[in-house]
Amino acid sequence: MNERQDRQERWDRRMEAPLAVASLLFLLGYAVRVLASGLDQIWLDLCLAVTLMAWTVFIVDYAVRFRLSGLGPLRFVRAHLLGTVILVLPLLRPLQMVKIYDRIQRRRDQPRLSLYARVMTYSSLTVSLLGFACALAVFQHERGAPDATIRTFGDAVWWAAETLTTVGYGDVTPVTPVGRTIAVGLMACGVALIGAVTGSFSSWLIQSFTREDEKRPPGNPPGAS
């Protein structure tokens, strides 16, 4: 590992906890502003300040990573496309929190969970956090729209669950351009997550059956006593 990579690794380790805390604070501040809009203005302003401070942490981290990489702006953006999108749309930060969780799991070079357990754990974390964030965003833009069917946060959560699982009952749907844009992104995430979980589970089943076949004595067919 050269000096540049070593410095990047040290920065990654140093920022694990601050980025996780900033991500949670951003989501919490945004949630309070959306769900408790009737609070006194001073508290709403405080929540806005918390979200902006958390966003500043994301910007500083991105800038330092760019500086340490030694890459040009376009090459850096191409190499860190997900991080760039999350910087612009910080409500997608749950996708980055899974990456932080993975770094913590690998702190001693040996993940504490097996591959299949990690896929299930990361998918569950992503679904929960991303679904909650998208439900907040859709509720914020839909609740006051004419002819809206998503009028409560419960409706928004139900819609997010339908969309992530690709069920799509159609009883509640976004009607605003922003809401529909969020829906398209959530559909794509839902398809990708379901594919990852289904593929991992199928691979685990095949591996389990293969191990059982390898342990079975030759000439002893399955089900034989």
Task: Provide structural commentary.
With 225 residues, the chain is an all-alpha fold. Helices cover 75% and strands 0% of the residues. It has helices at residues 3-35, 41-69, 73-79, 81-88, 93-105, 115-142, 153-164, 177-215.
Low-confidence stretches: none
Name the overall outline.
flat
- Order of SSEs, N→C? HHHHHHHH
Annotation, overall tally of beta strands: 0
The percentage of residues in β strands lies in: under 5%
Please sum up the structure shown.
By secondary structure, this protein is mostly helical. It is built from 8 helices and no strands.
Question: How is this fold's topology laid out?
Answer:
Layout: H1 3-35, H2 41-69, H3 73-79, H4 81-88, H5 93-105, H6 115-142, H7 153-164, H8 177-215
Features:
single chain; 225 residues; mainly alpha; 8 helices
